[in-house]
Inverse folding.
């Protein structure tokens, strides 16, 4: 009888030890959940990783991480070239001229400086040899426009060089879906105050493209000025177009900017 009691007691002890071991093993097993949310996608994915048994914690840890991903069209490059954006081909390849205003080809700056074809001082402040302009020497100014081929707005700013008098008939536009989205008018002769720029000095300008990101856009230069060029300096000249993450340094603000 005494031996039977001992056997039952020993069996009880073994069962108790096994139960305790299973209980503790299960209690020390937790889960760690990481949730990653992608802004703009609307989807949330959850990954669950089992924590190895016999670790030093019995808590369940939840960590949330949010990743902001820019629109897929935005370039990873700091700057993005626009085809023939500085007219380096010496032609209007990648652009379409309507009317005689901007002539049949870009203006050769180096040749013009060599021949003295400028107002007051040589052309300066430009990164290249060719510009788009309605400037003419001793020839009547005529109306017309020059429009770039369509490209995708893949950065936040359009940067460029420009010379322009303040005239309601001279302006630069950004077209979206073939329609004016942004229109800028400039007066580059009055900046900086007290030390006006020569009428042949280019200045930096920028147009924000944030509202047009990932859209198909184009650049249009417009001149509706008529008359002899000797009667004034009512001309516009521009070039060195490119897109960038940041606006141009020391830029000149438009005297008027409209958004459609």
């Amino acid at each position: 009888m005494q031996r039977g009691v001992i056997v039952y007691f020993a069996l009880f002890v073994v069962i108790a030890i096994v139960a305790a071991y299973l209980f503790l093993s299960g209690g020390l097993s937790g889960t760690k959940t990481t949730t990653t949310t992608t802004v703009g996608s609307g989807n949330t994915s959850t990954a669950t990783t089992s924590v190895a048994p016999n670790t030093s914690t019995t808590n369940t840890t939840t960590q949330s991480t949010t990743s902001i991903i820019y629109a897929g069209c935005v370039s990873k490059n700091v700057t993005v070239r626009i085809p023939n954006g500085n007219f380096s081909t010496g032609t209007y390849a990648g652009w379409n001229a309507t009317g005689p205003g901007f002539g049949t080809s870009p203006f050769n700056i180096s040749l013009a400086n060599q021949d003295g074809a400028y107002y007051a001082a040589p052309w300066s402040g430009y990164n290249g040899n060719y510009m788009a302009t309605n400037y003419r020497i001793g020839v009547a100014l005529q109306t017309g426009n020059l429009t770039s081929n369509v490209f995708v707005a893949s950065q936040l700013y359009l940067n460029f060089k420009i010379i322009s008098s303040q005239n309601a008939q001279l302006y630069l536009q950004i077209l979206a879906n073939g329609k004016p989205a942004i229109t800028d008018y400039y007066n580059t002769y009055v900046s900086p105050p007290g030390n006006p720029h020569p009428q042949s000095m280019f200045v930096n300008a920028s147009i924000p493209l944030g509202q047009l990101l990932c859209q198909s856009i184009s650049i249009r230069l417009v001149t509706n000025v008529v008359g002899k060029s000797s009667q004034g300096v009512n001309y516009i000249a521009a070039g060195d177009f490119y897109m960038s993450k940041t606006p141009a340094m020391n830029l000149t603000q438009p005297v008027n900017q409209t958004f459609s």
